[in-house]
Design a protein that fits this description.
This protein is mainly alpha-helical and 564 residues long. It is built from 27 helices and four strands. Helix content is 74%, strand content 2%. The strands form two sheets. The chain has a two-stranded antiparallel ribbon with strand order 1-4. The chain has a two-stranded antiparallel ribbon with strand order 2-3. Strand 2 and strand 3 form a beta hairpin. The longest helix is centred in the last third of the chain and has 29 residues.
Length: 564
């Protein structure tokens, strides 16, 4: 009886872990990864302590997973922001734990894969029901597009495409209603996601299936018909978002051109920082290097993102292993799913979701398995190490969760390296003294935060230290050259100071302020010259010229100086 219970738990446990990852935002947020890391650590240590044996694959797959996790740990030494770099390690630590778990339970892998379409169907079903209620709608939709529990339609869509492929392959062997239901739910989920990239991938996939899977063509035609009816109904009774997204597919769309701009700006940075900049490192220097107006935490290309985060070598090892698998895979199902995951990851940020990593690991061809007994000392060492990483996960995860829920002060109290929370504290500061203190604290850890220098400029101005104001303001502009409001604030403050100096008869000081103001159009001209042609074709067009009113102000004050 006890043995049967243990076997049941072992069968259900990995599916439950996968389901948990899917339910908590797909494992996108660091606090979700912290939860997964702790759960997986407890499970693995318990099993190792119980069996006193290990089972691991000493192959390219495990090496790739290990390189990614260690990469995020090591880059903390030279990262742009060492405090946030630790976030990256906590976020991706569950990846190696899940790999170890699957290696030890390869006999259960197909059962886990079999459960994936059911997880997707339940997610879609609950999401569609939740979106009918205003209170839950924002949890599962983004701009009217279905996002599942991921809160991101594109990654949800690629997951549903994976579910569809698994269900189609199982439908060949067993034409039961469960597989048919899963395919229908996958088609509905993909349609309602509005993901144009997945629409294209879906079309190609269906075409290939119709050509190669002759024995299930009739069923597939029926399912496609259901999808078409759903689209028509959505157009009649809804907003027609599905058709809008389909007809919006274009090589000149703002979304695609925006991605090209992200990639173009990221490539020179990768060459300059071949060993990576740590988690969120590129985000903090992005404004300095960008050649257009945008703000993204990820560059929508996971190969480039890995290079930006942990360096060229780890990224090449990871993606090289995926390509190796695609070439050598014995299963068409596994090859197809790996192609879909890898190709889509080159246009989006799927690997920021731990759930997608967990699904990907299930299809890797783990081999060269080694097993044996674990000495007591090793078990104790692993136990202590696990406790240490779990404590770190609790600290980082708690800080992340508190920050996301708006309790910024407590988030910083739990973990001071939470730069995002520190920046929020800066913008919420109620006094000049608090603002200055907070800005200096941020800059000590991260010298690339433009808003911190802007805050120091305001503090200097309030104390009458105009030279320091100019210094800090120009630094803020240098770090964020497309922040047009900074130029206007700089101009207005300089002209205000010029008025004050003229009233006091301090002509030289007034002259300096007006001279600095007259240089602002040149600063903007420099920004215009470096702006990419792509940036003029996307939604957010750069503003790189002062208004006629502001230019007239500069001329007016130049005349005042000449008259004096």
């Amino acid at each position: 009886m006890r043995e049967e219970l243990n076997n049941s738990i072992e069968k259900i446990l990995p599916i439950a872990l996968l389901g948990i990852a899917g339910c908590i935002g797909g494992g996108y947020y660091v606090f979700a990864s912290a939860i997964l890391g702790i759960l997986l650590s407890v499970v693995l240590i318990f099993q190792l302590w119980k069996t006193k044996q290990y089972k691991i694959a000493l192959d390219e797959n495990m090496a790739a997973l290990l390189v990614i996790v260690l990469g995020y740990l090591c880059t903390g030494i030279w990262a742009i922001d060492s405090g946030m770099a630790i976030y990256g390690f906590v976020k991706f630590f569950p990846l190696i734990l899940w790999g170890l778990y699957i290696c030890a339970h390869l006999e259960c892998r197909e059962k886990i894969i079999h459960a994936i379409p059911y997880i997707g169907s339940l997610m879609t079903l609950f999401s569609v029901l939740m979106m009918q209620f205003e209170v839950f709608k924002s949890w599962v939709t983004v701009a009217g597009r279905l996002a599942g529990f991921f809160q991101y339609p594109n990654t949800y869509a690629v997951f549903m495409l994976i579910c569809m492929i698994i269900a189609i392959h199982e439908l060949e062997e067993d034409k039961d209603y469960g597989n048919i239901f899963n395919i229908i739910m996958a088609v509905i989920g993909i349609a309602m996601s509005g993901s144009r990239t997945v629409y294209i991938m879906f079309g190609v996939t269906v075409l290939i299936v119709l050509i190669r899977k002759k024995n299930i063509r009739k069923i597939l035609f029926m399912i496609i018909a259901v999808g078409i009816v759903a689209i028509i109904l959505e157009k009649v009774i809804g907003k027609g978002i599905i058709l809008q997204r389909i007809t919006g597919i274009s090589m000149s769309s703002s979304t695609l051109l925006g991605r090209l701009l992200y990639w173009k700006d990221a490539l020179p940075v990768i060459l300059k920082h071949p060993f990576g900049m740590g988690y969120y490192g590129y985000y903090y220097i992005q404004q300095e290097v960008q050649t257009g107006v945008y703000s993204v935490a990820n560059v929508h290309n996971e190969f480039l993102q890995l290079m930006l985060d942990i360096g060229i070598i780890p990224a090449v090892i990871a993606f090289g292993n995926f390509v190796r698998f695609i070439i050598k895979a014995e299963s068409n199902r596994n090859r197809t799913i790996m192609i879909i995951i890898v190709v889509h990851s080159l246009f989006d940020y799927d690997f920021q979701f731990m759930f997608i990593w967990m699904v990907l690991v299930l299809f890797l061809d783990f081999h060269n398995l080694k097993s044996g007994k674990i000495p007591t000392f090793t078990r104790v060492f692993l136990g202590v190490g696990t406790i240490g990483v779990s404590i770190l996960s609790v600290i980082i995860g708690s800080s992340d969760l508190l920050y996301l829920h708006g309790d910024t002060k407590l988030a910083v109290k739990v973990y001071e390296g939470n730069t995002q929370a520190q920046i929020t504290l800066l913008t919420d500061a109620q006094s000049t003294e608090a603002m200055e203190k907070q800005a200096e604290k941020i800059i000590r850890n991260n010298a690339h935060v433009a808003v911190a220098y802007s805050a120091l400029a305001r503090s200097s101005f309030s104390k009458g230290e105009i030279e320091d104001f100019i210094k800090y303001k120009l630094t803020a502009i240098k770090l964020a050259p497309y922040q047009y409001d900074e130029y206007v604030d700089y101009l207005d403050t300089l002209l205000y100071c010029a008025d004050e100096y003229l009233e006091k008869g301090e002509l030289e000081s007034a002259k300096t302020c007006v001279l600095r103001a007259a240089q602002i159009p040149e600063l903007l001209k420099t920004v215009e010259n470096k702006t990419s042609n792509l940036s003029w074709k996307i939604k957010d067009i750069p503003q790189v010229k002062l208004s006629h009113k502001d230019l007239s102000k500069i001329e007016e004050y130049q005349s005042k100086i000449n008259q004096n």
